[in-house]
Write a structure and sequence with these properties.
- By secondary structure, this protein is of the alpha/beta class.
- It is about 25% helix and about 30% strand.
- It is built from seven helices and eleven strands.
- A nine-stranded mixed β-sheet has the order 2-1-3-4-11-10-9-6-7.
- The longest helix has 14 residues, at about 15-30.
């Protein structure tokens, strides 16, 4: 029986949530999942639905979430529901919900140079199932500057500074791009790439996402 995944999409229109949802659905189906789409955060409050899932894909940039929506999904992940997501749809959701950030492992704070920065993604864990066989690669898109949980397992990084900004006087830092973490029994995977559907659809990002789905999903 195929594992079941839910994509919950909405929030800021600039991240094209419905187009991203279609692309994520395609990647999930290619990875062998049955996929359901939602455009309501009330899906997070449906405990029966959450128990039926192997994987949750949050795709909701910014916005507000109520305790009635947040707490059931946190409990579901703590009890084993997998979570995987990309870009602002996962780690720039619900800026006023620190427990969401605790679960996901990080929060976007800046993207100096906006969406036309060319930079290198360096694979730091080449033996991990998500990144095995994938070489360092260059990409042109937003370069996310993140506040990151020190407990995450970093799979890939990018070097700042690349574009000008107030961060430059601090010197060179290695910023996580891909990571995993555990939240209770739940596995969490995040990829900071994905400003457009085209970014997610092109390899190696598409392959990384499909592997991240498999790694995160509970059996």
């Amino acid at each position: 029986m195929a594992r079941r995944a839910l994509i919950v999409s909405g929030g800021w229109d600039g991240h094209q949530p419905l187009a991203i949802a279609d692309l994520l659905k395609h990647l999930l189906e290619r990875a062998g999942f049955d996929v359901e789409l939602s455009t309501s955060l009330d899906s997070f409050a449906d405990e029966r639905l959450l128990k039926s899932l192997s994987l949750l894909i949050p795709n909701w940039t910014m916005g507000k979430i109520s305790p009635e929506q947040l707490n059931p999904v946190l409990a579901a992940v703590e009890n084993g529901l997998g979570v995987a997501g990309a870009h602002g749809g996962m780690c720039d959701a619900f800026r006023d919900a620190p427990e969401w950030q605790f679960m996901t492992g990080g929060q976007w704070v800046a993207h100096p140079g906006n969406d036309r920065v060319t930079y290198k993604v360096h694979i730091t864990e080449p033996s991990h199932p998500i990144t095995t066989g994938i070489k360092d690669f260059d990409i042109t898109t937003e370069q996310y500057y993140m506040h990151v949980d020190p407990a995450v397992c970093v799979l890939a990084t990018t070097q700042f500074p690349t574009a000008p900004g107030p961060h430059v006087p601090n010197g060179t830092v290695q910023m996580p791009v891909l990571w995993t973490k555990l939240y209770g029994k739940g596995r969490v995977f995040y990829c900071s790439l994905g400003h457009t559907p085209q970014t997610l659809a092109a390899d190696p990002v598409a392959t990384i996402m499909k592997r991240g789905f498999h790694w995160s999903a509970r059996p």
